[in-house]
Amino acid sequence: MGILDASEVPPTYSAQGVVEGWMAGGDAAIRRAAEGAEDSYPQGYKDMDQFGLTELDTLVGIAASGRTPYVLGALQHAKDKGGLTIGLTFNPNTTLASAVDVTIAPLCGPEVVTGSTRMKAGTATKLVLNMLSTAAMVKLGKTLGNLMVDVRASNEKLRVRSVRIIQLALTEHGAGRFHVAGDAAVSYAVDQTEKLQQLMQSCHGHVKLSILIGLTGLDVAAAETLLAKHHGVLRRALDEHIGIARLDMPEKRPCLPLDKTYVVAVDCGGTKMEATVLVQSTGYVIGTARIASTNFATTPVNLFLAQLENVVTLALGGASWPRFEKVWVGSAGCGMDNLRTVLHNHLSGSLFQHTDAANIKVSSDALLLSSCLANAGVDQGVILVAGTGSVVMRCNHQGDELARVGGLGYLVGDEGSGWALGARAIKYTGAVVDGQRASPSTLSNMVLKTLACQPDRQALQTAIYQANDTDMDRKTRICNLARVVVEAALDHQCPVAQDMLASEASDFASTAAVLVQEGDTVVLGGGLLSSVPAYADLVCQELTKRGKMNISFVKVTNVSKEAALTLL
């Protein structure tokens, strides 16, 4: 397992020789087991000579039993050279634990075939080694976010992947556009694959260098110098280029440069509160953060403002707040003029008191999605939101609402929403519990399990209408059952759940069809449409059945970033 993990590190992270794998019996033992080789302590000690270990090295000794002589000999060699030693075993109270600096001893329980440690212990070994090597590569700066930016494009598959990684990095950490080497005045959209390939070729196939140049417009020599200065850590190079200094403090709080201006957009929806902060001049992403749902309509003002401050601070990476040039806050419940005015007054009088009040925009959370129309370069289109609730709006690219259908709230409408699906599931389960109105299914069993109740009327009522509940508690409980319907339909192929999903998609499409016109750009937002592709596909198919042809569908995953981009 050690050899397997070590062999994957060079192509994945361009880290030749950083992680080496070896086993008792040498390379020959990879194909044919050398059972006796592991019994020699002296041979284990001697075989480590070939690696020239020093106090800068770490040796991980793997011995499921915790007493393999060969491994113990190798570890002693590393200790004698002053290196760090780690023991990976599945028998913690053995010689190995006392022979190393750090012991990792996962508890796997007995093997299915007694003594066959290639099974559970072998699987756990690979998982632990994955964690160790991945963590080491992250600390060495071989990643940017979750992207492996030091991948070595050694074959066609990896060359295609490299271009995709560059594209993702430029989208996530920039304004969705990139520069060519040495020309910061010209930028191209990230969907121009040929230009991305040219960029990578000019950087000798180096993904990390391509991303740095694409985001900054530096020439190759300057970008290489900047990367070398920061020992190849791309994030630090990017931070220096825009002037962020990471202080040598335990919390690593960044200091944002005061000579730059910033914009922030916050999405306060039914399922999450999300904020994205950008540098106004370049679109460089300072950060995006998400916390649990808090919206202005259902939360005390002081709590709402505290949570908004929290999510923006998280997006800033803990930095002190700069002066924001422009702000856009979209919150569920703020579709009404009076609530928008109240929230605007609170924002301009407290959190964003240093921002010109005219540059603070307040809207419903759904209207944040109009930013996708502006970013797509279309004059107007239709926004479909299906999350906790649902609504359909026709908007222009400036964020003005032109028409609206649905969105009357969970007591009146919200067709196709999480509430509608959850309500269907609970009504159906009630019919099953009655014993004569519906037959049990995978869905009803999963609903009862989720609610932790027995299949009888009183238990179900108690689970739904719990003592000291507020209306919001009950609404949330029922909305959460939408996930159960989706899981039953897609993962367990339950016909009852599949029919519910299709029926809600049809109802929602009927509502949407009132505003959708042929050739429209339709933005799909909300938790159900953005995170359940199968449900979004059903809605799109139902619109097509209703004669809505040549529709361009846009699926959104980071609403706050889309909104922030329109503030540049």
UniProtKB/TrEMBL annotation:
One of its GO terms (biological process) is peptidoglycan turnover. GO terms for molecular function: carbohydrate derivative binding; carbon-oxygen lyase activity; ether hydrolase activity; N-acetylglucosamine kinase activity. Keywords: Carbohydrate metabolism. Belongs to the eukaryotic-type N-acetylglucosamine kinase family. Its EC number is 2.7.1.59. The keyword Thylakoid does not apply. It holds the Pfam family GKRP_SIS_N. It comes from Hesseltinella vesiculosa. PANTHER family: GLUCOKINASE REGULATORY PROTEIN (PTHR10088:SF4). This is N-acetyl-D-glucosamine kinase. Residues 1-142 form the SIS domain.
